[in-house]
Amino acid sequence: MVYQADESRYGTMKYNRSGVSGLQLPAISLGLWHNFGGVDTYENGRAMLRRAFDLGITHFDLANNYGPPPGSAEEMFGHMLKTDFAAYRDEMIISSKAGYTMWPGPYGDWGSRKYLIASLDQSLKRMGLDYVDIFYSHRPDPNTPIEETMGALDSVVRQGKALYVGISNYSAEQTEEAVKILNRLGTPLVIHQPSYSMLNRWIEDGLQDVLQENGVGSIAFCPLAQGLLTNKYVNGIPTDSRAAKPVSFLNKDQVTEQVVNRVKKLNEVAVERGQNLAQMALAWVLRGGRVTSALIGASRVSQIEENVAALNNLSFSEVELNRIEDILKS
User: What is the model's pTM?
Assistant: First the structure.
């Protein structure tokens, strides 16, 4: 059956401008870091992508090494573009990144001009695209001049391979330098993608100020702290959770008694707000308008539906914010 997008898809989604640019992103974006690779069930990934778009999620975030195996998430998404999304390409923001290990040797990692441009060329082939909407330097390279890395980002825009450029995992100081270089080159930095959640607040110590002062947007990855900020871990580590897997970015040692106690108290606040914990955690990241979009992951359609429902209650009273702050600092 030919896919037809829900005609009401733009009715309830909230869209935010990325900094001072003309680019608007949905408040909830979908990342393909996990569960869309070659080892995963294609039909499950297809169902999640379809449902996400039907709910107004127009931004799909990828990277060259997403899978596993590396590159397979882009291949999967490229197949979806052909079979389901061909008619909707111009309604989508598709992003990719390069900066982590992708192939052997000195030219398949970090932030050289050689690696970034070659990687983007490969990503475009995997997805069957002429251009991506956003291309990121996935992490700063301590051994490559930042001028070279930013120059590569400027080049891909001028070559028509990307419409906008971003950076990810850069510190406040590195971001400020990147902004200055890109402004001189004439390709402004539009977005920064940092990790940010109730349990990981490093961007509040300078980075958010740099972004606001320079008119740069932000999209927070891991806003649910790899699932810690859900009801999943309230009673320990479920056997089907990320923390229980032998290879995972969330280690079971991170699920400490102190963290679980905080999660339980946060969950009480969420229930009083008429939300589940994940929904409140997303609303908290988006509070005050300093974050453009919260980047979620998903393993099933219902998670996407639940996360988008967070937009039904984005406001916090001062009492709620103070209570949450006390819990996080306890």
Answer: 0.94
pLDDT tens per residue, range 83-136: 999 999 999 999 999 999 999 999 999 999 999 999 999 999 999 999 999 999
Contact 48, 12 (CB under 8 A): no
**Cis amide leading into 68 (omega within 30):** yes
Which spans in the chain are helix H? Answer: 42-54, 72-83, 113-127, 146-158, 172-185, 207-213, 257-272, 277-286, 301-308, 318-329
Element spanning 31, H or E: strand 28-31
Cα–Cα nearest to 102, from 60, 74, 82: 74
pLDDT of residue 233: 76
Contact 254, 228 (CB under 8 A): yes
User: Are 242 and 218 spatial neighbours (Cβ–Cβ below 8 Å)?
Assistant: no
Strand partners, 59: 93
Question: In the prediction, which pLDDT does 240 show?
Answer: 55
Q: What is the phi/psi pair of residue 204, to 5°?
A: -75, -15
C-alpha dist (Å) from residue 180 to 100, 149, 195, 201? 24, 13, 23, 25
The secondary element (H helix, E strand) that includes residue 29 is strand 28-31
**Position 134, amino acid:** I
In three-state secondary structure terms, 1 is: coil
In the DSSP assignment, the letter for residue 197 is: B
pLDDT reported for residue 219: 98
In the DSSP assignment, the letter for residue 104 is S
Are 158 and 164 within 8 A, CB to CB? no
Do 207 and 172 form a contact (C-beta atoms < 8 A)?
yes
Task: Please name the residues in contact with 213: beta carbons below 8 A apart, sequence gap of 6 or more.
Answer: none
Distances, alpha carbon 137 to alpha carbons 61, 120, 307, in Å: 13, 11, 27
Name residue, tokens 């111009």.
90
C-alpha 9/C-alpha 13 separation (Å) is: 7
